Amino acid sequence: MRAARLSVVTVTAVAALTAVTGCTAKASSGSGDSDRVIDVTATDSKCEISKKEFPAGHVELAIENKGSKVTEVYVLFPDDRIVTERENIGPGTKQKVTAEVKAGTYTIACKPGMKGDGIRQQVKATGGTAAKRDPRLDAAVAAYRKYAQEQADATLPLAKTFAAAVKAGDLEAAKKAYAPSRIGWERTEPVAESFGDIDPKVDVRADGLEDGQKWTGWHRLEKSLWQDKKITAEDKTLADQLITDLTDWQNRVGKADITPTSMANGAKELLDEVATGKVTGEEERYSHTDLVDFKANVEGAEKSYELLKPVAKENDAALVTELDKQFAALNTLLDKYRADKTSYDFTSYDKVGDGDRKQLSDGVNALAEPLSKLAAAVVTKSS
């Protein structure tokens, strides 16, 4: 989960950038090809976009962070669901995000410091329908939707085992059930995050809470189990709430807006999750089960990639070669931290030294860079 997120419900669009108050439009900087490129210039106090109206279909956000803070950019549907996003855009850096949008009204938002609702601006995609897709991409979307539903369906029984142990006051059983209950969620987290309101309930960390938000979910219980070393009456109530919220997620997965570009961007988001939470040890700061989440994130990213790979290979064979190489390298690296390659019994992350953490970080970065190009590769000839 991201350290801090939008507190809005959900938005209806293809790409979302969280912007600061007072977004203003500017002339196109010519960073791309005609009317399908939207230049986004983010600072600590502004979110400037090159156009407020563009054709439906494939669009590219050419983002530049000219501020002093790390920022995030979102494209949101009217109800605040996330069409697409790019997190952790450092000062002085540029990013490109390819997305697919149908005709309609959306919000682009820039979020300096990755806190609050950000600076927002309405945009409009015009035209009847999105670009015609390669039938293989439609099949990839259908297969991924099935995969996401399967992960949600498999998570509920594991989460119920975890919740039952908490409610029984069995500290050790709850600890044992904690990490396995999170695997399906971590594999498909971008789908859950796209709804906007579920992730803050089940997967927020203490430092990601918005003002006035009650801390609920896995990490609140993780703190009780490992740091406080006791289960309270409130924890038992929170265990029930976790199951209620995960059941909501399970029921809504099938209705998620999924496109080939959202699959590709979601794969990159999963690697960003690893880089900003797992490698640093921040995600599972009490249980130190970060490597379980790490592996699940990589598996989810690889699933999206494998489904999109046939089209990506035709459009950019060199990219596919590099992605195959880097996925294999990162998986091999992770295998060093478990005795059985079929299990999720990984080394406790507090036992992983700084040098090894640096090696893991380098492996993530080596994969994340080419993975950021996957969305463009699946639309190059199919848009």
DSSP, total strands = 9
> Which radius of gyration do the C-alpha atoms yield?
20 Å
Shape: globular
Low-confidence stretches: 2-32
State the share of residues found in helices, binned by percent: 40-55%
Strand numbers in spatial order across the main sheet: 2-1-4-7
- Per DSSP, what share of the residues sits in E-state strands of 2 or more residues? 15-25%
| Terminal-residue CA separation | 31 Å
Summarize the structure.
By secondary structure, the protein is α/β, with parallel strands linked by helices.
Descriptive notes:
- The protein has 383 residues and is of the alpha/beta class.
- The chain has twelve helices and nine strands.
- It has helices spanning 135-167, 171-178, 183-187, 189-193, 199-202, 218-228, 233-252, 260-278, 290-315, 317-335, 354-371, 374-379, and strands spanning 37-42, 47-49, 53-55, 57-65, 71-76, 82-89, 94-101, 104-110, 119-126.
- The strands form two sheets. A four-stranded mixed beta sheet has the order 2-1-4-7. A four-stranded mixed beta sheet has the order 3-9-8-5, with no helix packed on it.
- Strand 1 (37-42) and strand 2 (47-49) form a beta hairpin.
- Helix 1 (135-167) runs antiparallel to helix 9.
- The protein is globular.
- Residues 2-32 have low confidence and may be disordered.
